[in-house]
Write a structure and sequence with these properties.
This protein is α/β, with parallel strands linked by helices. Helices cover about 30% and strands about 20% of the residues. The strands form three sheets. An eight-stranded parallel β-sheet has the order 2-3-4-5-6-7-8-9, with helices on both faces. Strands 1-10-13 form a three-stranded antiparallel β-sheet, with helices on one face. A two-stranded antiparallel ribbon has the order 11-12. Bound molecules: (4S)-2,6-dioxohexahydropyrimidine-4-carboxylic acid and zinc ion.
Length: about 375
């Protein structure tokens, strides 16, 4: 008999959903697995105000069938121009959990990001005061710093000093990729946490260059050495509540990935929970998946844990080569689809039954 696992419905605390036709094509994958997701604000133009976040949230909900229980939680894009009044407004807004700090130029759509931490200190002090969460893309952007060292240098030069200066600030180091990041979170208080993606847990930088350059394994922060991957695996499966699930699933049109200058971002939402099940199973730690996927994030964000459940079943299924994006102009096939992780390969677990979204039987059969 296939092994099964019943857990509290999970949440994804780091998700890119985009807008327009890509949003419509992507969001159902997350809604079929997760009850809540923290939706990243790096649209063009970015989501910088509580008012715009409310509109964006409605755009997301409009793409879902009636009765979907998916609950998007919003975060606002921190810029040099974020005022303390904007922070106060965010703190009073329903569905807004915090602000996302993108160092300017660090990643996809980060041009409007923060140019110097000193410029945003008043906003960060106001956030600390209001208990809002700062989600951090933790990489320096200095061209002189090796791309594989940018997380460690950011922690050293920016994040650790910030946390010393504002010890009350609630901070998440997003998509931790190094043992340095793991150590930073482990040594922090209970106001410091880290999210871990499936792709950084599954792969290392060798996979990016396996028999050629593989654009669908390219993300930021970039995949690191195997020893860092092992450190992430240890943290995810340790039962330490400071580490929880955030996929960083990020759809890009195929032609924008398979390009002379391909975009950063890996789409995992089609199999996200299933991939984490594979990871925890591989570590003989399936009994720790529920805490990581369904409890610790809710606790950190101070929202109730979900009350419904999902059932995972060991079952190998093949991931499609691509998913269509209906409604794209131009008719170029490379710009009318996106490529998921493991395209054409198998995933070893599936969701057998989910109450997420009131969908009853088999979201993924
Ligand atoms: O790989 C990434 N893709 N990293 C990010 O920080 C942003 C994301 C995206 O928006 O595509
Ligand atoms: Zn992200």
């Amino acid at each position: 008999m296939a092994r099964t696992l019943r857990i509290t419905a999970p949440d994804d605390w780091h998700l890119h959903l985009r807008d327009g036709s890509l949003l419509a094509a992507a969001v159902g994958h997350s809604a079929a697995r997760f009850r809540r997701a923290l939706v990243m604000p790096n649209l063009v133009p970015p989501v910088t105000t509580a008012g715009r976040a409310a509109e964006y949230r409605n755009e997301i909900l409009a793409c879902l069938p009636p009765g979907s229980g998916f609950d998007p939680v919003m975060t606002l894009y921190l810029t040099d121009n974020t005022t303390t009044a904007m922070v106060a407004e965010a703190a009073g807004a329903p569905h807004v959990a915090g602000f996302k700090l993108y160092p300017a130029g660090a990643t996809t759509h980060s041009d409007n990001g923060v140019t110097s931490i000193h410029r945003v200190m008043p906003a960060l002090e106001a956030m600390a005061d209001k208990g809002l969460v700062l989600q951090v893309h933790g990489e320096v952007t200095d061209d002189h710093v090796d791309v594989f060292d940018r997380e460690a240098v950011f922690i050293d030069q920016v994040l650790a000093p910030l946390c010393r200066e504002l010890p009350e600030l609630r901070v998440i180091l997003e998509h931790v990729t190094t043992s340095d990041g793991i150590g930073f979170v482990q040594s922090g208080g209970d106001n410091i946490a880290g999210t871990l993606t499936a792709h950084h847990l599954l792969y290392c930088r060798n996979d990016l260059f396996r028999s050629g350059i593989r654009p669908h394994y390219y993300c930021l922060p970039v995949l690191k050495r195997r020893r860092h991957q092992e450190s992430l695996l240890g943290a995810a499966t340790s039962g330490n509540p400071s580490f929880f699930l955030g996929t960083d699933s990020a759809p890009h049109l195929r032609g924008q990935k398979e390009s002379a200058c391909g975009c950063a971002g890996i789409f995992t939402a089609h199999a996200a929970l299933e991939l984490y099940a594979e990871i925890f199973d591989g570590m003989n730690a399936l009994d720790r998946l529920e805490g990581f996927a369904s409890h610790f994030g809710a606790d950190f964000y101070r929202v109730p844990r979900n009350t419904d459940e999902v059932i995972l079943e060991e079952f190998a299924w093949e991931v499609p080569a691509s998913y269509p994006v209906p409604g794209q102009p131009g008719g170029d096939p490379a710009l009318s689809e996106f490529v998921p992780l493991r395209a054409g390969e198998t995933v070893g677990w599936r969701i057998r039954r989910t109450d997420v979204g009131d969908s009853g039987e088999a979201a993924v059969d």
